[in-house]
Amino acid sequence: MNLFYQPNLPEATYLDTEESKHCIKVLRMQAGDSIEVIDGKGSLFKAEIIEANHKKCSFSILEKITTEQSSFRKHVAIAPTKNIDRIEWFVEKAVEIGIDEISFILCDHSERKILKPERLEKKAVSAMKQSYKFWMPKINELKPYNDFLQLKHRGLKSIAFVDFENPVQLKDLLDGKQDSLVLIGPEGDFSEQEVKLAEEAGFKKVGLGNSRLRTETAGIVACHLMNLA
């Protein structure tokens, strides 16, 4: 079954221009064909195409299926990589694995200081459909590191830092019974001052295993560990 995205369901019973073009021009679907549409808020709608217009494909809703979101949120705050393809890859894979919120932080060693959230959201939507998930993660804009630390965060707060003398591993702190937030630093890692500020703000310094990981890989490992807890 072909899956499409319309965040304004059930009021808006049509696909946007990009989704409509894919449905009608690429997949060559016609009036009367069955489709599935998700709203990114936990619901899937079984529907039937009414007007096969490649600019605005309209449909009628036949059935609504809802899913419950986990009570405990999984959140990764990550410094964007210099190569934009790598951070886009992270967003895509994080959504496929399962993440509720992604934040981007501007750190002392950050090389990339500008992000286009619209493109990242498109990657997230594509990954959500590909992995057949009904919930769209919250994607936050780039924020200075110190400002991010001042926000209120519930549950387990940790900062992943390359320190092989630190015996505390993230996998040992996660219990799946509380919100979890993991900070992932840029190429070159967090500065010592940033680690100190995080610890003062209640974050625990943790390791992600015995390997030195790239930024985007560390983000994926954190997502995977949170989903296993």
From TrEMBL:
Q: What Enzyme Commission number(s) apply to this enzyme?
A: 2.1.1.193
Subcellular location, principal: cytoplasm
Q: Where is the Ribosomal RNA small subunit methyltransferase E methyltransferase domain?
A: 70-226
**Residue ranges of domain Ribosomal RNA small subunit methyltransferase E PUA-like in the record:** 15-61
- On whether Aminoacyl-tRNA synthetase is a keyword of this UniProt record, the answer is no
Q: Which residues form a coiled coil?
A: none
Taxonomically, which superkingdom?
Answer: Bacteria
Q: What does this protein do?
A: Specifically methylates the N3 position of the uracil ring of uridine 1498 (m3U1498) in 16S rRNA. Acts on the fully assembled 30S ribosomal subunit.
What family is reported?
Answer: Belongs to the RNA methyltransferase RsmE family.
Name used for this protein in its record: Ribosomal RNA small subunit methyltransferase E
